[in-house]
Design brief:
single chain, binds adenosine-5'-diphosphate, four-stranded antiparallel beta sheet, alpha/beta, Rossmann fold, 15 helices, 437 residues, six-stranded mixed beta sheet, Arc Repressor Mutant, subunit A, binds magnesium ion
Length: 437
């Protein structure tokens, strides 16, 4: 079957696979057998955890990188590089700081060889549509984050794309700014002020997906693959407080956590490059205590727990995931349950908690064990942070590596597994002369 046989299909991703070579020469398979299709008139959400390969897939669809296998069919042809009609909005604004807003937007057209006069007209129009009028001659540094991301949108829209790819475009913005930009975009979309036929929105935010999309594809991790599809039956504008909206969010949440036990890897095979969320030990301990309390007796339905703690489900998710990674809880089918070690932690005093945390870190988180080993082996028991950062960057993007090392530093300090000195940016362990740890 070709996409021609389905008149509403505008893009067809078939059996796409992508692997990267690891520093040791092994292949890391990030995407496997990815199938998805975009139809005319829909916003499709791709919902998956960080590190599941969403950006990689989007870059393949944009023609920026090649797939290792499979095809992307666009306008009935195999895609071989960037195609006219496919544009992308990135998570980080990626603007040229030395160019004005107008020039940044025009840059979106340069690859197409548009004549200067037409380029200017179209750029001004895109600037107008996206609500940046009056800012054409400003430089990015003069703009707020929300305005900068509007420039990112204008730069994609100026090309009159058929397909708009968006890679977590709202995630770097504060809550209110993000919501304004989402709503403005949806207004343009529903009023058909854009030539776009279909949108593929990558997100790790369930609420955002339910707020914006007509169809949500749930993406698994390790390797990334579309594992289920959810139709969103609501008209725009949508109301986040509508009980049916809440129910759908909870349902998707349950599906994603059910998936974690079916498709996720056991903690024992985490790699040094496993991405860690930047979650404070206070939050981790707080969630363990809440779960151990008389209200929950060690087990809770995640959406209920989120309500009880006044957290959005998307805020609770990474905390629950961290507890699972550390062996303090199990998450499955929308429930979280403390393990025996988790229950012991809840009962313990501060010192015993720290010992427990140190034990869980070195046995469950390879990066923690690695840092500790290096420090143990070095005569001065000291190692610069940058050493571990560059190791992590073999596995993770620069930002993810920073965040992971920041999280681990915070956790290791709490557990007294090592200390970290901000001035010299190095890790050390204090080894009392005659005591063995
Ligand atoms: P997501 O966008 O879902 O957070 P990414 O697509 O950015 O995920 O990354 C998925 C995985 O692929 C990560 O483990 C990442 O480290 C790895 N990866 C991405 N790009 C490269 C690359 N150029 N080289 C090696 N590994 C990469
Ligand atoms: Mg990404």
């Amino acid at each position: 079957m070709t996409s021609n046989s389905d008149p509403t299909a505008v893009l067809d991703v078939r059996a796409v696979r992508r692997s990267f070579e690891r520093p040791n020469g092994d292949a890391l398979t990030v995407l496997e057998a990815v199938d998805l299709r975009l139809h005319r008139g829909e916003i499709v959400g791709l919902l998956g955890r960080s590190g599941s390969g969403k950006s990689t897939l989007l870059r393949i669809v944009a023609g920026l990188i090649k797939a290792s296998g499979g095809d992307v069919i666009y306008r009935g042809q195999k895609l071989r590089g960037p195609a006219e009609g496919i544009a992308m909005v990135f998570q980080s604004f990626a603007l040229f700081p030395w160019l004005t807003v107008l020039q940044n937007v025009e840059a979106g057209l340069e690859a197409q060889g548009t004549a200067p006069k037409e380029m200017r007209e179209r750029a001004l129009q895109a600037i107008d549509v996206i609500g940046l009028d009056g800012f054409a001659n400003a430089y990015p540094r003069e703009l707020s984050g929300g305005m900068r991301q509007r420039v990112g949108f204008a730069r994609a829209l100026v090309t009159d794309p058929t397909i708009l790819l968006m890679d977590e475009p709202f995630s770097a913005l504060d809550v209110l700014t993000a919501e304004t930009l989402r709503t403005d975009f949806l207004d343009l979309w529903t009023e058909k002020k854009l030539p776009i036929q279909s949108v593929l929105l990558v997100t790790h935010n369930i609420e955002e997906a339910v707020f914006m999309c007509d169809r949500i594809l749930v993406f698994s991790s390790n390797p990334g693959r579309v594992v289920s599809e959810i139709k969103v039956p609501f008209q725009h504008p949508r109301n986040r407080l509508d009980p049916r909206f809440r129910q759908l969010v909870d349902e998707i949440y349950a599906r994603m956590t059910a998936r974690a036990s079916t498709y996720g890897r056991p903690a024992a095979v985490l790699s040094i490059g496993e991405r860690l969320p930047d979650i404070s030990t206070n939050l981790l301990a707080g969630l363990i205590e809440a779960l151990a309390s008389d209200v929950f007796l060690g087990r809770a339905d995640l959406p209920l727990l989120a309500d009880e703690l006044s957290l959005a489900i998307d805020e609770l998710f990474p905390i629950a995931e961290s507890l699972q990674m550390l062996g303090y809880a199990e998450v499955a089918a929308g429930d979280i349950q403390l393990t025996t070690i988790g229950k012991e932690f809840a009962e313990a005093d501060t010192q015993a908690r720290k010992r427990s945390f140190a034990r869980q870190l070195v046995t469950r988180i390879p990066l923690a064990a690695h840092i500790r080993n290096v420090l143990d082996e070095r005569p001065g028991h000291r190692a610069p942070r940058v050493r571990f950062l560059s190791e992590l960057e073999d596995y993770l993007s620069d930002n993810a590596a920073e965040e992971t090392l920041r999280a681990l530093t915070m956790w290791g300090r709490y557990a007294e597994l090592f200390t970290y000195d901000d001035d010299s940016e190095s890790f050390t362990i204090v080894m009392p002369e005659s005591t063995d740890r």
